[in-house]
Amino acid sequence: MLAHIALGNNTVLGNDANSWIWWAWIPRHQHEIYAYLREHMLLTAVSVVLGFVIALPLAVFAARRRAVAAVIVPTVNVIYTIPSVALLALLLPTTGPGRDPAVIALTAYSLAILVRNILEGLRGVPADVLDAADGMGYTRRRRLLRVELPMALPAIVAGIRLATVSTIGLVTVTFIVDQGGLGRFIQDGYQRDFHTPLVVGIVLSVALAVLADLLLVRLERVVSPWRATTRRATARSAATRRKR
Fold first, then answer.
1. Residues of the chain whose pLDDT is less than 50?
2. According to the model, what pLDDT value does residue 103 have?
3. 5: Cα within 13 Å, side-chain hemisphere
4. CA–CA separation, 244 vs 240, rounded Å?
5. Are the CB atoms for 76 and 115 separated by under 8 Å?
6. 3-state percent breakdown (helix, strand, coil) of the chain, nearest 5
7. Is the dihedral of CA 102, 105, 108, 114 positive or negative?
8. At what angle do helices 30-64 and 99-123 cross, to 10 degrees?
9. What element of type H or E holds 219?
C-alpha cells in the first residue's frame, strides 16, 4: 500500500480522490484520455502542416525581396505577441466554437517561428554556391529546389521542431473554443479542484512535446546526414590540433 505524504489538504502519494494522483481514476477514463490525446495530436499536426504550407512561399518570397521581408516578418511577429486567449476570443464571433478557430489561431502562431527559420535558412546559403548554380544554368526555380532548400533543411527542420513543441503547449488553451485536447483535463481539474485530471493533462502534454522533439531531431539527422559528418570531421580536427 502506498504511503500518504500530506501536502495541504491533499496527499502526494495515495490512491483516493484527495491524493494528487488517484490511480483508480486513470483506467476508468482511458477512453477520454485516448480521445483527448488524439485530438491534441491532430490539432498540432494540422496547424503545423498548414503553417508550413503558408510559411514556405512567404519565406521564399521574402528571401528574394528584402522589402517584402520587411513587411512579412514584423507582421507574423506581431501576431505571435497576441495572447492566445485574446486571439481565440476575437475569432469566436466569426467562426463560432469548434476546430476552425483553434486551427486558425494555432496556425497563425506557428507562422512566426516557421517564416523566420525558413528565411534564415535560405539566407544562410553561401553566395558562391548560388553563383555556381547560376553558372551551371540553373533556373531560379531549379536552384531553389535543388540547392537552396536542401542546404536550408537544417534550419527548416529546426523551425518545425520549435513550432511543433510550441503548438503542443498552445493547444491546451483552445478549450475555450470547445477544443483543447489534453487541455480539457487541465481545465476540468482546475475548475473542480481535482488534481488527478490536472496532473494527467500536464504530464501527457509534456511527454508529447518531448517525444515530438526527439522524433524531429531524428528526422533532422536523416534529412541532413552531412551535418553529422561535418561535426565528426570538426571534432577530429580539433582533437588533432590539441595533440599537437
1. 1-9, 229-230, 233-235, 238-239
2. 92
3. 5
4. 6
5. yes
6. 80, 0, 15
7. negative
8. 40
9. helix 195-223
Domain boundaries, the chain: 42-227
Half-sphere exposure of 19 (CA within 13 A, CB side): 15
The position carrying cell 481514476 is 25
Angle between helix axes 149-171 and 99-123 (nearest 10 degrees) is 150
Residue 226 exposed, middle or buried by CB count within 10 Å (0-12, 13-18, 19+): exposed
Cell of 134: 547560376
3-class DSSP state of 200: helix
Nearest to 158 by CA among 103, 210, 104, 120: 120
What end-to-end distance do the CA atoms of the chain give, in Å? Answer: 62
Q: Is the domain defined by 42-227 classed in CATH 1.10.3720.10?
A: yes
Query: How many whole angstroms separate alpha carbon 9 and alpha carbon 195?
Result: 12
pLDDT tens per residue, range 94-127? 888 888 899 999 999 999 899 999 999 888 888 8
Spatial CA neighbour of 196 closest among 3, 9, 37, 24 = 24
Distance separating alpha carbons of residues 133 and 149, to the nearest angstrom: 13
> For residue 109, what are the contacts with CB-CB under 8 A and spacing of at least 6?
79, 80, 84, 166, 167, 170
Task: Note whether 112 and 166 are within 8 A (CB).
Answer: no
